[in-house]
Amino acid sequence: MRSTEHPQAWQVVNDMVTVVYDLCRQVDVEEATKTVKSLLTNYISLALTPKPKLDADSATSYFGIFMNSSAISVLVTLYVSPYKGNKDTADSCIRHFLNCCRTSLSKIFHTQAARVALEFCKLLRRGAGTHDPLYLYCRSSLGGFLEAAEVSLASSEDQNFKGLVLVQDLFPFVRELADSLLMNLDSSIDSPSLACPLLTNIGDFTAFLVPVRTGIEQHQALRGHVPYHKLDRNGLVVEEIEYLHLLYNQLLCKIDTCLQKMEKRFVDKEMVHEENYFYPACSLYLSLLKELHKISKLYDGAPEKLRSVLMRQKTVMCLMVVKYAKRADEHQWILEHKNVTNFEARRHLAMMIFPEVKEDYEELHEMLIDRSQLLTESFEYIARADPESLRAGLFMEFKNEEATGPGVLREWFLLVCQAIFNQANALFVACPNDRTRFLPNSGMFIRNFSTILVCLSKILNLLFSPLLFATRWEYFQVEI
Fold first, then answer.
1. Who's near 246: CB < 8 A, 6+ residues apart?
2. CA-to-CA distance for 318 and 263, rounded, in angstroms?
3. Local structure of 394: helix, strand or coil
4. Are 306 and 293 in contact (CB under 8 A)?
5. Domains recognised in the chain with CATH numbers
6. Confidence tier at 447 by pLDDT (50, 70, 90)
7. pTM score, whole prediction
8. pLDDT of the residue at 115
9. What is the pLDDT averaged over residues 43-54?
10. Which residues pair with 151 in a beta bridge?
């Protein structure tokens, strides 16, 4: 047992390596899979044991045990072993270990967990190939860890003093995933079933691109913002930066072809039947375009190429935005290409800014309004209300009318908005330079400040809080 600050962890790893070596030599081990899994779980559990100091340095020291032992190599050796049962045992144990790292360890450990997953990938790539299921699992796990992992521009492990993930080690994965995406895109327009592999590849591609782009941006900051082909070879490998530019051009060309095929189908009226509007794989084109938009920021002339493709395929682009843009996605990048959107696409993007409607409120804020006193009584109800209650459900009813429900509530919203901006009420006046904008009527506020300011602020918060809370003003031309 070597001297270390983590003697228990070393003991657990050594025990695990011994068991796996025995399996590789065809020594009979009772409940082998269960035994190895238990030892791996113990190793993770020790990492969670409270310590006086838990930081990046201690995480590096702890996972250095796993990296510096032969644990990773013997597990991969077991996986490629020709003996019966060994492959299944290794497969189960490696998946178990990486899954425990993902679900049990805090993000402090993710840099080191990424280094472990990276080492598994390197060995499996050589021993089992890039299409092997376990390799693909390890690659996806590595992509997941990269979200919180720290990266280094060091050119080799000898210079990687902090034990970070080397950016140049990630380029082979970007190449693999880009090649897979190119093949998937070739078939996506004609194969309705291809959405799942394309989704996985785009997700992994996105995960690996984040640290790669960060590395290139840091490299440009250190060297000065110069054309990529003039960078020297002392830091990030120039060939890799050039290759990413080549991949960008290839993917952009391929998705341009896919969008052209889609447009032809629309012209030929082959894809305009309700739910068969698009094939499932087409829903992922927006995600890929977003990644190409981010890559384009790294290279001179690349944004213009992307804009040219989007303008050429404006019709299909707008249809995809309306059908597939979701609230959970990031669509701000489209704002930089406003000319490629039409009214329907912009309206859809604007609506995605608003919170999703919830109808399971425990309490309702009830209002009974006289139509003839619409604005006055609305002000009174809202002025007396607790601000938090206005974020719950609203129950609206007009006096001497039986109708209730969402339709009545929508009518009330419309009438109140019209009353607020009605020139006869003089709460707001039109901007003299832009008739689409409204400004508060300063004279009206001065004369009635004490009576309407609180009411007005509350009703505006109720009506327009989604805009004030989260909306990008590029979508709207209203000043309040």
1. none
2. 11
3. strand
4. yes
5. 7-269 (no CATH), 364-470 (3.90.1750.10)
6. very low
7. 0.75
8. 93
9. 73
10. 165
